[in-house]
Amino acid sequence: MRTGPCAAFSPQVGMEVGGSGSKSYGQISCPAEQPVAEPAAASIKGTGMRRVVSQYLLLAFWCAATGAAFSQSDYKVITVIGGGTISGTVKWSGSVPHAVAFPITKDPQICDPDSKKTTDLERLIIGPQGGVANTVVYLKNISSGKAMDLPEQRRHLDQKRCHYIPHILLVPEKASLDMMSSDATLHTIHMDGAASFNLPFPFPNQVTSRAMPTPGLVHLRCNGGHVWMNAEMMVVSHPYYAVTDESGHYEFTNVPAGTYQIVAWHEGWGLAGKEQAYDVLTEHSVQRPVFTEAKTWEKPVTVSGNQVSTVNFVISNSK
């Protein structure tokens, strides 16, 4: 008799969706869920064909736009002589919004061991000194510079207590994202954007890797009914990206002398509503949170050889 997190699984269903084909797992059903808040394909029924075609066109446009925002396909690695440093902070100004929480509706023994009944959606983290964590800061128009040296921990994802750790991922173009689950329950990572996968994790501590060949933004959600789970990944083609900590600090080193545009990107912290999603285990519809749009701020910066340039960002509800 089958026991543990897969006890209720049918042995005749289960697919991994994504990449160039599908792979049978024989334990879980993983149909690709399509969020309402973003362009997606709907079921083709009767007169719905025209709407489906329109949504596919919107999805193609959206993917192209996000890819253009974060990609630098012409970037060249050079030996940087006399490079400078860019450093600064992202700070919050004004009253702090209430933390966005969501009810824990599944697997409370794993997802809510402290019996809090709700969980923080981790969309806005402000440190004791006003620093805004999980802001991605990057150089927008750099065409050459040092080799890729992004932090290794940003390309390893764990699913722990029904949260994605880390919440913001940075993966070099053509590199792999390593994923695992520490939870003894079914999680299914659904990705859309610059990468499209639907990956089941029925067993704890088993690592699954997928290459990320296309630069751009990728949204991560759980199709296993843990609707509050959310994360963002940027697949990038140059090393001048950083994710702020709770002090709001970031730093780029070994930057070639020149003038650039520096961008601070935040995923957005508001809750816009809810949408229907699909729990692949129970085969029931569930309500997933829908978030407000991401926000960006941009400034020029001039880098001189062996000098430090400071660029600070101040963000708030109003700007």
Observed structural traits:
single chain, 319 residues, mainly beta, 7-stranded mixed beta sheet, 4-stranded mixed beta sheet, 2 helices, 25 strands, disordered N terminus
Set out the fold topology.
Layout: E1 15-18, E2 21-24, H1 49-70, E3 76-77, E4 84-92, E5 101-103, H2 108-111, E6 118-120, E7 136-139, E8 144-145, E9 156-160, E10 163-165, E11 168-172, E12 176-181, E13 187-193, E14 197-201, E15 208-211, E16 216-222, E17 230-236, E18 241-243, E19 249-255, E20 258-266, E21 271-279, E22 284-291, E23 295-303, E24 308-310, E25 313-315
Describe the overall structure.
With 319 residues, this protein is mainly beta. The protein has one domain. Helices cover 8% and strands 41% of the residues. It contains 2 helices and 25 strands. The chain has helices at residues 49-70, 108-111; strands at residues 15-18, 21-24, 76-77, 84-92, 101-103, 118-120, 136-139, 144-145, 156-160, 163-165, 168-172, 176-181, 187-193, 197-201, 208-211, 216-222, 230-236, 241-243, 249-255, 258-266, 271-279, 284-291, 295-303, 308-310, 313-315. The chain has a 7-stranded mixed beta sheet with strand order 2-1-14-13-16-17-11. β16 and β17 (230-236) form a beta hairpin. It is globular. The termini are far apart. Residues 1-17 and 19-68 have low confidence and may be disordered.
